Amino acid sequence: MKLGLRETRERFGAALEARVDGAFGQDDEILLAVMGRAHMATGGKRIRGLLPSWIAENAAGAGERALDLGAGLELIHNATLVHDDLQDGDSHRRGQETLWRRFGAAQAINAGDGLYFLGMELLAGAADGAALVAPVSRAMLRVIEGQVMEFQLQRPAGDAARIEPGAAAWERMARGKTGALFGACFRAGAVAAGLGAAEIDGAAEHGEALGLVFQVQDDYLDLVGDKGRGQRGSDLAEGKLSFPVVWAYEHADRATADALRAILSAPRADTDTAMVERGLDLLARCGALDATAAWLRDARTQALEHPAARWVPGLAEEILAPVIHAL
Amino acid sequence: MKLGLRETRERFGAALEARVDGAFGQDDEILLAVMGRAHMATGGKRIRGLLPSWIAENAAGAGERALDLGAGLELIHNATLVHDDLQDGDSHRRGQETLWRRFGAAQAINAGDGLYFLGMELLAGAADGAALVAPVSRAMLRVIEGQVMEFQLQRPAGDAARIEPGAAAWERMARGKTGALFGACFRAGAVAAGLGAAEIDGAAEHGEALGLVFQVQDDYLDLVGDKGRGQRGSDLAEGKLSFPVVWAYEHADRATADALRAILSAPRADTDTAMVERGLDLLARCGALDATAAWLRDARTQALEHPAARWVPGLAEEILAPVIHAL
């Protein structure tokens, strides 16, 4: 009987949290630890942290063995969030002030840097760390490259650093930014389970694909739900380049694509509700909404059929839960 | 016959540079690589990169074996410089515009993050990487903690995050910020040379001590030379908490300490030449200048007597060269 995500959290959640917290040491006076703990206390579902134990437990009863790997990967993931919040100028995360707002930009850079190396130290010291430091480092390079590309995709026409928004560039960006670390979490679980090389690579590939599904789901949710921000289309208002928008740029007629471009490139303050509604309407009428739903249905089927899916029962459904009613 | 630094550079410098450059890959279009290469092209003496090969060659003829370790450590060190430049608002490094000025703050954060993981990937993939990833991560945590503390030591009285400037806090900051990675470079060379555990730890300890000597030398140089910035006392003008200033805070009479505090806490723009001259005069008259020279002479003797000094002939002299005339 394989564990689902909820049972995994019940079984390993507290131990994972103890490893994360323990990594900061005993001295409460150290500001680097104060900042790291303050960020971790903003919460999050700890999916990346739980994945290694989830997979290792279901594949080999070795969930315990993967706890330090999960804690390390969770810390590294949270480092990217600390830097993200600063880069995007976000003042709050899950209702609490972000680190750069509380401690200033310079210290928030330090806090993220510290979380990276705290995570690497945990990884390196874990039983299976030697096999994972290099692939996790490579995965993080893809995460950071994705982050670099996301900014490039949003640069105005004529800017030297601009990347023309297209499906290939978008997928490379999203696979890096969201998929690569998911893949590394799967790899960590498969290594801790003692699986063979082909199964380890297969697990990482499945994790990366699910990371991409998560990203496209999030983009779709912005069009069909409200992402908890009170209104649909907030990505449009913020000028975020999403899967549906990139699809429209490549498949819609020129007038529709140009109209969408105008909405996305307008400053946030100038984007009123009527503009967002027009954007949503354009995406629906040009077929981008349906194409995104079809992509997600297809990705769901592929995910469920993947051999590594048996180690994480219910994960694809969990990822798609917020939008499943609209697929 | 053991190699000096110059011979080490002649023997291994080009190969080191090739490893550093090769780490960025072949694709010239990737902005993350463009930024990383642009930063590395600002130069630097690559001391940290050369140290592992220098030590490994002199201790065991294994300089070649340590090249990837050196390249990885050099990349990680340069990541901290990229973030430093942004944190300090420095517009130029060695005559060239800093990354945040050329590519913006968000991309400079990404560039530093990328250099960290490129360095870790090289380390992890090196022959001796497995033994070094955890201690290098721990050293980097101390570097970052030092960076955090440096800002805390400069916060105004009454600020919640302020650390009271004293000798113990200053040394912890400087040992972390400047010593810890030097120590890791020595450790890497000793590991590549196949030395025993006690010798490896001894080498790391010696490296850390030399890092501290480098920092105190740099502080002293600001008082007796011009650090190439056209005038003495630029640290005083910038409000930097240096070894001589901390010494004065602890040993000078109250009036002198208060007068120094007033100079350091004045905004850069309000600090004229006369104020800087007064600060230099105060440091000389209260004995801080002599105390710093005495500390350096003492540290030099200790460094030369350290067992690990035989692997890096001339390094202590090289570090002290800019101030040796004044000791």
Explain what this protein looks like in three dimensions.
- Two copies of one chain form a homodimer.
- Chain A has 327 residues and is an all-alpha fold.
- Helices cover 70% and strands 1% of the residues of chain A.
- Chain A has a domain at 1-127: Farnesyl Diphosphate Synthase (Orthogonal Bundle).
- The relative contact order of chain A is 0.10.
- Chain A has a two-stranded antiparallel ribbon with strand order 1-2.
Would you count the extended β strands of chain A for me? 2
Element order of chain A: H for helix, E for strand: HHHHEEHHHHHHHHHHH
The most extensive contact between chains is: A-B, 41 and 42 residues
In CATH terms, what is the architecture of the domain at 1-127 in chain A? Orthogonal Bundle
CATH superfamily of the domain at 1-127 in chain A: Farnesyl Diphosphate Synthase
Provide the descriptors you would attach to this structure in a database record.
Farnesyl Diphosphate Synthase, mainly alpha, 2 strands, 327 residues, two-stranded antiparallel sheet, homodimer
Short description:
By secondary structure, the first copy, chain A, is mainly α. Chain A contains 15 helices and two strands. The model of chain A has no long low-confidence stretch (mean pLDDT 95).
